[in-house]
Amino acid sequence: MSLSRALAAFLVSFFLAALPAVAQQEAKIKQAVEKKLGFPVTSVTKAGYLGLYEVFAGGRILYTDENMTAFLAGNLIEANTMTSVTDQRMEALTRIRFADLPLKQAIKQVRGNGKRLLATFEDPNCGYCKRLNKDIATLKDVTIYTFLLPILGDDSLQKSKRIWCAKDQVKVWNDWMIRGQNPGGGANCDLKALEENVAFGQRLGINGTPTLFFADGSRAPGALPLAEIEKKMNNLTR
């Protein structure tokens, strides 16, 4: 064994020895899962049910036992209340600070007093995104930050470029998403924001559009019904 590998092994052993028993087990499972699956694991936490451990990786939750004899993917349901423990944990694990969003990389729309906040990550060719935009077109007293996230192919990227480079980004975006008017014009502007949006989305584990973020940092994947969006924003501005 090389000196560097020996040193790394010693540091891992020293780190594990300094942790409480539960934390030691979680750290061991994290290391073993990363080795087995071949990608980084964000966290491992004792789930509190059936001797399982919650593994959060790549924006998803998996469950395994301490010996990793099997992996479970899906909802863990609490029997007394019949509520999804997995959904509750996903909301907690994917929550962010709204202020940490790179808002300068988004198309900004302000309506009325703009007090209510909503951020969306969207692909211009996403059908659910188009439905969402038709719904939220009626929102009042809101500031909407739309992050272009072209993940559905080259045409999505080309449309995103033309929308981002438009003189009136809001108009061109709404014309396309709501009224079906294909974005024209060129793509001769600084397009770094689009690259950074994709990288940021990967860091957040956003693998589908639309993905919504509210002022409290909570995340909602998919095109929520307008009534749910209104309710959530109203509760946050009371």
Helix-strand blueprint:
Blueprint: H1 3-17, H2 21-37, E1 43-46, E2 53-57, E3 60-64, E4 71-73, E5 77-78, E6 83-84, H3 85-93, E7 107-111, E8 116-122, H4 127-136, E9 142-148, H5 154-165, H6 169-177, H7 192-203, E10 211-214, E11 219-221, H8 226-236
Protein model, in words:
The protein is an alpha+beta fold. It folds into two domains: 3-93, no CATH class; 98-236, Glutaredoxin (3-Layer(aba) Sandwich), CATH 3.40.30.10. The chain is 40% helix and 20% strand. It contains eight helices and eleven strands. Strands 7-9-8-10-11 form a five-stranded mixed sheet. Strands 1-2-3-4 form a four-stranded antiparallel sheet. Helix 4 (127-136) links the parallel strand 8 and strand 9 (142-148). The protein is globular, with a radius of gyration of 22 Å. The model has no long low-confidence stretch (mean pLDDT 88).
- What's the number of structural domains? 2
CATH architecture of the largest domain: 3-Layer(aba) Sandwich
Order of helices and strands: HHEEEEEEHEEHEHHHEEH
Per the principal axes of the C-alpha atoms, what is the gross shape? globular
Give, in spatial order, the strands making up the sheet with the most strands: 7-9-8-10-11
Largest sheet: 5 strands, mixed
Structural class: alpha+beta
Going by CATH, the homologous superfamily of the largest domain would be Glutaredoxin
Give me the Rg, rounded.
Answer: 22 Å
- In CATH's first tier, which class of the largest domain applies? Alpha Beta
As a percent range, the share of strand residues is 15-25%
**Counted beta strands:** 11
